[in-house]
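Q: Sequence in, structure out?
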Amino acid sequence: MTSTFLPSADKQPGGPGVDRPPPSADAGHGRTRRRVLHWLTAVGFQVPALALFLVLVLLPMLFALYAAFFRWGGFGMPSDYIGGDNFTRLFEDPVFLGDLWRCLALVVLSLAIQLPFALAMAVLLNQRLRGRAVYRMLFFAPYVLSEAITGVLFGMIFAPDDGLADQILGGIGLDGLGGEWFADPSTVMATLFLVMTWKYFGFHMMLYLAGLQSIPRELTEAALIDGANAWQRFRGVTLPLLAPTLRISVFLSVIGAIQLFDLVWVTTAGGPDHHSETMAVTLFQYGFKRYQVGYASAISVAMFGISLVFALAYQRFVLRRDLEGATTTMRGGAR
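A: Exactly. Output:
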């Protein structure tokens, strides 16, 4: 009887019993070089963006904060140090305090009228309508126009007496409703908000449309089978799943109202008698018209502080769930 002897596992070629040569020094140096090259490549791509951010964003912000403590006309370097007088002046200036109230009014009107209107149009255009692509394009088109073009256009539409708005009202027998839309303190903010809604609601509508189209149709069909009517399906299925998009839309709307400038400047320049002025318009008036750059810098710091506080609070109390979900998803995908 012939017996065949097989080598044990620890004696087989490549098995655990075989002594492997230690990694060579060249292999270790190669891995180190690859890591260094990878790190240098990442830094090389980031340095241009960081340099632009430093020169165009961070340094001007720091200089504005520095200039806010001086009485400075914008020529030469600031030298007349006045401490916090510019910031004290802010809360004694009726124009700036009026800017805060007008900003709050625009935020409330946007949240109460503009965004619900955009949501209603998004829900409507998410249905199977003939020509809905054309309607989406038409409603989004105003957002593509520049604020300067929009301001000039509505300046002609709401021109007193011979403007298109007054002509339409006169044609239907409502000429008593016409008037000096942008020149009357009692109507200027309402008219300005109408222009803002026409300009920006299409952007929020497209955001909502994207959110609506990401909702699985099976969920609404299941609710329909369970006997839910259209309002119950919207309230119980669509609205909760659309909540992250709504929160982002609200955030963008509030920040946009705080920083609103170009549309107001082209249409009214803040008039009449500061009744349509915003913080950004006031900043421009003092900095580039009256050459009180120190005080204008204080306004810019106040605007930045308001935006920063709102953004941090909104992220902490409103967006926290969305951010935690995104972080969890990224970690799960990394595994």
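Residues 1-6, 8-12 have pLDDT under 50 and may be disordered.
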